# Entry
Amino acid sequence: MPNHCNNALLVEGPKVELNRFFNSCIREELGDGSKRIPSEKMFNSKYPYRSSMSKTMRASFKDLSKKIKRRFKPNLLLEIGSNDGALIKNFDKEKIIGVEPEGAPSMSASIDANKNIVLESIDNFVDGAAVKRVGNLNFSLCKENLHDMITIPEGKICQIILDLYNKEATVVEPAGALSIAALDLYENEIKDKNIVCIVSGSNNDITRTAEIKERALLYENIKHYFIIKFPQRAGALREFVADILGPDDDITHFEYTKKTNRFKGAAVVGLELKSAKDLEPLIARMKRHNFYGDYLNDKPDLFQFLV
# Structure
């Protein structure tokens, strides 16, 4: 078997007959992929796979760790997607830090409660690290061995994804960016030290790019959504653009809501500012000219409903 699986872990189970055929072009014998085994039958509680049982993977990680230690002499190492800790076992671990997304803090909540609990709801944006309930073994290991457990806002993760793509031409998935996103929380501790982050995972769907950018801008306090009360008269939108918006502000979203007042018409407006410090003067101008209706960024339920 692959992974050099321990025979002791093998258990009797249902058998599925697979046909074999020969591909004359590549001169290989191939397995039959026409019969699919239900995942709940294959990947159950008795599934014996552990990535650290693979001799090839262990040898590869050991070689990689030697190269990292020789080149960087790291003081701190963060690894996401640790493959049962097969890589970090090769390093001295004075401090082990757990990292998970802020919208799915299942490990943090369980450690705080001193028992493995189930979250009622989560933000599954960081799909490689977002679960309502962590595994019992994971919980016991983390509870006993972690020196710190932190959460990272999804917007910060998106910011790192974009930075890696724009500055390093590196594509990472949200879970793969967790380790780098955590560094800012330890900036004083890691100052003037060599830090190595293992970026694990590049399964990023290109169709998510718009959402990633949106979350990053919201996190940076650059993108803002408002309910704007426009006077029902000619020239109101031009007045809003000329007298309310700053010279570097852009309208990125505009949608009229149902008209309920003959004198005022409410619209949901998204604005992208040049700097986060431009927000307060913008709101002040809206109120002074009687355009201000409501601010949506800090009202998540209403924000999700309207935008």
User: Anything to note?
Assistant: The two ends are 51 Å apart (CA to CA). DSSP finds eleven helices and ten strands in the chain.
